[in-house]
Amino acid sequence: MGKYNAKPKLLVILGPTASGKSELAVELARKLNGEIVSADSRQVYRGMDVGTGKVPKDKMRDMKSGPSINSGSSRAKSRDEIRNKFQNSKISAEGESASGGKNRKLYLYRGVRHHLIDVADPKKTFTVVDYVRLAQKAIDEIARRGRLPIICGGTGLYIDALLYGITFPAAKANKKLRQLLEKQSAERLFKELKTKDPRRADTIDPYNKRRLIRALEIIAATNAPTPSSLTTIHCSMIVGDGENPQRRTNRPYLKIGVKKSRDELRALITQRLKKRLEGGLVDEVRRLHEQRRLSWKKLESFGFEYRYVSWYLQNKLPAHCYPSETASDADALVSCLDQKNWQYAKRQMTWFKRDKEIHWTENYKEAERLTRRFITSPPELIF
Length: 383
What we know:
By secondary structure, the chain is an alpha/beta fold. The protein is built from 14 helices and eight strands.
């Protein structure tokens, strides 16, 4: 890892969706003897592969097995082929994918070990507290093997909780309030949140009723907006030192952000959406509902990809998704997912822009230079 190694260090690769952070992390891991710890709130779930953008696994192998390098490629399809795939997916679903696996299995991509992928059942709740506990364990194991732990993902709360520790507002669940709020539409809940806490509204998913209700519940309990260090709230538990919530991890760390221009990121989002649709996103949602018995309501809580595909499969796409009166359901799904992906990327950048520790880079060489300097320098000489 370098000449100076008095204390194990931690590399963090982050950035907006579709920016290429996963591939950058893999390249650095291959070059610098690293392993990756995912920081994605949905990639933890088994069976949710296409919609969460998991890197394609080489193989699932036992912990005692060595790495295997085997990457594949996919051929782009035309819009008509994608549309046909949508229509077919309403009639029949493919068999269950081999994405389950147990926690003691290794997830490998291009020979690089990935952790915190496929560790939870989507029927069960997985919180930021669960993430920090498992991530800390993975980081310790990676460091003991003499490798560089690389945190990679776009869930800002998970990264912040891991690095700093976060104190969550002591707002217990309010059953009566939740029942009242549950009767309201997501649009109305978002409008109320925007009035009471504009900063929180800038980063929340405006269609995720569970998070909207929780945010309003916290405001009602504390009679104050969400604290500035918490722009996403999952639970009322303490991570790290409750008396000093901004306490840093005891490991030196470096944050590298993947920088893309607005136009480039917009194009990458559209390209990736097409790839996911041709890769079976609709079939995946259908399988999760029919074979894994996840309710439509549960699927809709996993973010806009699963929400809008669920609505598509139920013939319930909202009118605003249709770009024209003659647009098909498939056209409407593509239009809405593309728009929602872009809005999500902007919310991520709103989160990351507040973090002055991030070193933004536009290419691999710069990222490698920064990382090599980091892992070979004493902590007091780092940047």
